[in-house]
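Exercise 7. Given the encoded structure of a 266-residue chain, write a plausible sequence.
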């Protein structure tokens, strides 16, 4: 059986590719869930990794849920509804929690449709770049369910409540250009330029001191829920750590000496 997620590391940049193109990369079943989480944990545990890119094999980023599997499971779900919450908790809901734990920046290179849970997966990433062929839909209502993977938490924080409500209540898709206008993605590029653009952005992140980048991401994540005074306390504690790094001293020395810095993750 082929790997659910391809893991390709070049220098400090890891590219993760959802690898079920025949089914348009659904992420709802246990094998794919486990593979995504394992890849994220591997990235976060490796100090050599500076940034990651997430994309999909084939013509889609991710179709979200596997509708055939959903149809097959429907009688059992209807017969024992109390078992469904555990299915979600031990399944797809582990993915947003894994993204919440990882301190390495993740760029979503959305190469095609990102539908339902596929859209929410893109929202779990820190930065989203879209190919012109990309489409985005919070489409759960179209199949008579709700976002069980954190979409109701993620999407309003990216596009605002009103736009998120419109997307979730209608299930209608956005084009790549509409997603750009809504603030869902930060740029739209030609399909052929997607991965090179994501790679160039990853390289711009990877040249920076890795401890500072990881702590910056953690502050941004915690800032979504913490009060200002609590975030300031966290920032002060982190600042005491980065001030003690060799990379901080190198950055200051290089700036004053007007030369390129050399960061070693120390």
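Solution.
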């Amino acid at each position: 059986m082929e790997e659910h997620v391809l893991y390709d590391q070049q220098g400090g940049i890891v590219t993760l590719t959802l690898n079920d193109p025949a089914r348009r990369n659904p992420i709802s079943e246990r094998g794919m869930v486990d593979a995504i989480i394992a890849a994220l944990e591997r990235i976060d545990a490796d100090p050599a990794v500076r940034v990651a890119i997430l994309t999909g094999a084939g013509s889609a980023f991710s179709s979200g849920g596997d509708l055939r599997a959903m149809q097959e499971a429907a009688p059992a779900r209807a017969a024992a509804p109390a078992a469904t919450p555990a299915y979600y908790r031990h399944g797809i809901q582990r993915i947003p929690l894994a993204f919440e734990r990882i301190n390495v920046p993740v760029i979503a290179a959305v190469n095609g449709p990102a539908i339902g849970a596929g859209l929410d997966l893109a929202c779990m990433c820190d930065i989203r770049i879209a190919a012109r062929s990309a489409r985005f839909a919070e489409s759960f209502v179209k199949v008579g369910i709700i976002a069980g993977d954190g979409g109701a938490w993620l999407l309003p924080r990216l596009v605002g409540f009103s736009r998120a409500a419109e997307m979730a209540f209608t299930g209608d898709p956005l084009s790549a250009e509409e997603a750009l206008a809504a603030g869902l993605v930060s740029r739209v590029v030609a399909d052929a330029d997607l991965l090179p653009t994501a790679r160039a952005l990853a390289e711009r992140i990877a040249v920076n001191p890795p401890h500072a980048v990881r702590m910056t991401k953690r502050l941004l994540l915690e800032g979504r829920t913490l009060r200002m005074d609590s975030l300031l306390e966290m920032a002060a504690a982190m600042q005491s750590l980065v001030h003690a790094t060799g990379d901080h001293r190198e950055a200051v020395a290089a700036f004053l000496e007007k030369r390129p810095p050399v960061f070693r993750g120390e």
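Remark. The CA atoms of residues 223 and 230 lie 9 Å apart. Students should compare their own answers with the one above.
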